[in-house]
Specification:
194 residues; globular; six-stranded mixed β-sheet; alpha+beta
Amino acid sequence: MSNDDYFDFLGWVDCTKWNEICSQIFHAKVLNQSSNRMTKEKWILAGLQLCNTADNIDWVDCHDYDLIFTDWNMGKIEVKTGNNPIFSSKRAKQKDVVTLKMKNIYESTYDRVELDKDFDHIMIVQLDPVFVIAFADKQTVCEHLVQLKDGFLTKIPTSKLTIIYKDKSAGITESSIDFDPKTVILKQLSEAGY
């Protein structure tokens, strides 16, 4: 698969709509609380699912990867959404290196010396001040791994990423969506008759 194949994504997803959804997620203060950080990524992936006009992205949320691109032979995608991974928060200056946490040691029952995550590609999504979608294959991720006491980082030179989409963040700071996980859970339980 060539890097040009990453651009297929632009034909599958309404990126303008996803940018609008992600802008609201970014500005939802409740999702920045430490107990809700994992929930934030689920909102981002739910937004992607809604914007997938080709209906060919399965949100599987497995242990090692988040999505399957059904139109690709090697389509297991790990999604990373850290704070300003590719562009700085001020002036949106592109960074030379993208640093991402890939795995925590506590996720395993043994001492690990190599990254044993099962994925084919990584998709990096930056929400603000620019909305960016970038890809790299697993080999690139692994070539730039750094082992720490508590897991692995990858420090990928930005030049080795394939940035397929970059636009100013939609800047939607007010939302009618209640992002608070407690509200969502209580509503679901109530609708189930509890």
